[in-house]
Every structure is written in structure tokens, then in C-alpha cells.
Amino acid sequence: MLIGMSNQTLLSGVKTAPHRFNRYEIKYLVAESDIPALREQLKSRMYTDPLSPSGGYRVESLYFDSPDLRCYQEKIEGLKFRRKYRIRTYGDGVLTPESMVAVEIKQRVNKVTQKRRLDLPFFHALALGDSTGGAVGAEVDVDKLLEISPENQHALIREMASFAKNYRLRPIATTTYRREAYVGVDTESGARVTIDHGVAGRDRDFLLGQELDDRPTVDQQLAVVEIKCDERVPFWLTDMTAQLQMSVIRMSKYCETIEAFDRRPASAAGLVEQIF
């Protein structure tokens, strides 16, 4: 059942349509000492994301997986089609059940990254992704959620619920970092570059927004840089990466967290910890 919120609370602030993204993503690990030079080049050709304050903003994601880490294994095995369910929040402050979060199915089809996203209260995002019902103390009532959600969200809600049930999803791990972001100009408006600092994670205590001593999952002297484009990478960006001797890497922040806990996260064993 869905408990703890009125229909009005659920609908408040919910987007009327799910977001969809199809794009190419290229990742690099760059020494923090080299970031100022990279930053100057980006600022000469791109806008600073207006939502990105000086020093960047906090990004925290909660990933769901099966007790045997099926989503992790699919990534490691390099399956051409694979999916992840995650909850993502931006900015500082501990979340409440009513706090709005982005709920995503992120999938990889060959070399293209696809995302489908809804904005939901944290309580319902947890219930929808946790097949055990343990995170909020009750299993999600999908029919009730459909009744109080816009019709154009129904297909994605059903897909998320089916994914959670079929994979036996439960909350498994978080990733946290400080992000600065740059966006393309005019004809390159589909290009985006992000620089993520201090990547860390944990395998328990899944109330998002807490200031905890998360375990570093990427060398803290390195930043994760991503170039994200709808179609092709602008030539000047390709030239820039060559000039700065940036080497493409294959990595997943979620997988880095799992490996930081020796592929045995505490969250995969026993009962799911109730968050609220």
C-alpha cells in the first residue's frame, strides 16, 4: 500500500511528462592538478551551467540491484543491453519523505545511453524501486500510484515496477560527488561537459542528503570528466582532449562503489533497512 502521503502531496511538483534522453557519454579520469587548465578551455567555448554555483553542486544517487548484484554483473560482463534503476537528488540538505527526487531507468543500448526519468516524492521513489517493501515499511501499490499520476507517466511507472519485481531490486549503494557543469552554445547546445570531484559512496544508511564519511571510490586526486553529446562530439572538444592528453576510460560510479566494498555490500544481505 502507499502510506504517509495524500494525493495532493504526491502530485505537488511532479512533472507532467517523463524526461527522455538519448546520448553518447565519454568518460575520462583527470588529475585534479590539471582541472584548472581544462576549466579555462571549457569556459572559452561553453557556458557554465546556470544551475551550477561556484564550486559546483552536490549530486547523490541511490542505486538499486538484486541481492546477487545482477545489474553490476551485467555491466562488468559488457552486455549490449543493460539497465539500472536509481534515485538522484541535487543540492544539499537531508531529504524528507516528501522531498522531490529524480527517478530514472538508465540503460545502455550498444554505445548509446538512454534515460527515462520521473520526478516523484522520495517516499514513493523508494517504494517503487524496492521489491521487498522494506525501505518504507510497505510494498508499493502500483494501481494506486497510477490513479494519482498523469496518464503519460503510466507506461514508465509500470516498467519501473516490473523491473523491480523481476530483478528483485533493493537499495544497494550510493554515489556522492561535487559536480561542475558546462553546456554548449548555439549549434552545440546538445553538448555538455561535467567534472565530478570527490567521488565516494556507501552501502548502508540510505537516507539521502546526510553528511557522512562515505568511502572514497575514486582516487581523490582524480576527477571524473564526462563529455555528453546527442549526436557527435564537437571537433574542438576532440582536439582539446588530445591536447590535454586525456585518455578515455570505461567506468561506472556505481560499480566503483560495489568494488570498494569488495563486491559484498552490506545492503545485499539480510533484510532491507527501513529508511522512514
Q: Would you tell me the structural class of the helices and strands?
A: alpha+beta
Biggest sheet, in brief?
A: 8 strands, antiparallel, barrel
User: Could you state the order of secondary-structure elements as H and E?
Assistant: HEHEEHEEEHHHEEEEHEH
Q: Could you tell me the CATH topology label.
A: mRNA Triphosphatase Cet1, Chain A
Runs in which pLDDT lies below 50 for 5 or more consecutive residues are: 1-17
Mean pLDDT reading: 91
Strand content: 25-35%
Radius of gyration: 19 Å
| CATH superfamily annotation | VTC, catalytic tunnel domain
Overall morphology: globular
Looking at this protein, list some descriptive labels.
eight-stranded antiparallel β-barrel, single chain, mRNA Triphosphatase Cet1, Chain A, VTC_domain, globular, alpha+beta, 33% strand, VTC_sf, VTC domain-containing protein
What do you see in this structure?
With 276 residues, the chain is of the alpha+beta class. 25% of the residues lie in helices and 33% in strands. The protein has a single domain (17-262), classed as Alpha-Beta Barrel (mRNA Triphosphatase Cet1, Chain A), CATH 3.20.100. It has helices at residues 7-11, 35-45, 70-76, 122-129, 142-147, 154-167, 235-243, 253-260, and strands at residues 19-31, 47-48, 57-65, 81-90, 100-109, 112-121, 170-183, 192-202, 215-216, 222-229, 248-249. The protein has an eight-stranded antiparallel beta barrel, surrounded by five helices. A hairpin with an 8-residue loop joins strand 7 and strand 8. Mean pLDDT is 91; it is low at 1-17.
